[in-house]
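To start, an entry.
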Amino acid sequence: KRNRQAQGGLGALAAETGGDAFFGGASTNYIANRIDALTSCRLLLSFPPADLPLDKPMNVTIVVKVPKVKIRVQGRILVPGPASIQQSRLLAAFVNPAASDDGSLRALLIPRGGDGKNWKASIQLRLRPTGLSDNSAELGASIVHHDRVTDHFAASVATASGTRPTVLEKTLDIPPGEFSVVAVAFNTKRGDIGSKRLDEDWPNPAKSAAAIAPIAVLQVGPAAMSKDGAVSDSGSLARDVDEALDPSIGISLVSVVCRGGTTRGPVVVERWLEDGSHDEFAPMTITETGDPCLQTVDALRAGRLRPGAVDYRVVARVGDGIVAQQRRTLLVVARP
């Protein structure tokens, strides 16, 4: 039944585009003869569509008053309106994000917590400044898990300044394992569309002694920002792994650590910078009777980091053994 339905759909698509469909192991001679007949004399008829209705499928009939001459036509046409064209462009950006990924849109994850089974994280979409005043953008993202959209969000954000990025942030529950974030931004003033696909694989606390979420790096900066429905003109902006950090601005390093479901005894969480002391950040402990997960937030004052690259590490210990760890390289560039 599924095969017949698929064949019917493909046959209808071929008929609507003036082509042909071959099913059931058609011979090469049969296919070649049919293609030769279809392309032996191809005619292109054009006419102005000004008076035709928009977004309405219309049947096409062509009559040839020549004896013994047969003609095959595209059976249906549709003149798309502006809204349909925009919707098609947005859908194409979601389906194939790489085609619209011009580097203008960033999709970043900020771990916020967990219950030992699922993670809680903020998904931050950041659109770079356009340079245009009184501009607005529509941003949205879908979370795809096992080829299925499990959650999505969208909003419109406007700003009078052309020098600030546009940011949309939403906190959601994230299941462990592989998932993707597919984000699209539409500039309502210029009509530009940007997209970004982020592929992640977060650990499963239930299948390990402890699990640590990927580390997020935040710096406060100006932005036209909507965070879980609250609007502001600045906020904590997540930085991608390839983005340089300004040492003159404070830096926050954020992660979440969860103990495993079968782990016995306390889980000690340690954090440090490779160029600093292991005692710079006080250790934290996840007890057997307390919450299974805790969020780590380590603040670096302005000027703490020197230009260059430095690693930040988060380690979970049970007794004297390391059971989980995460590492993030910080790229620091001196500002004039």
User: Anything to note?
Assistant: The first strand starts at residue 58 and ends at 59. The chain is about 10% helix and 45% strand. The mean pLDDT is 90.
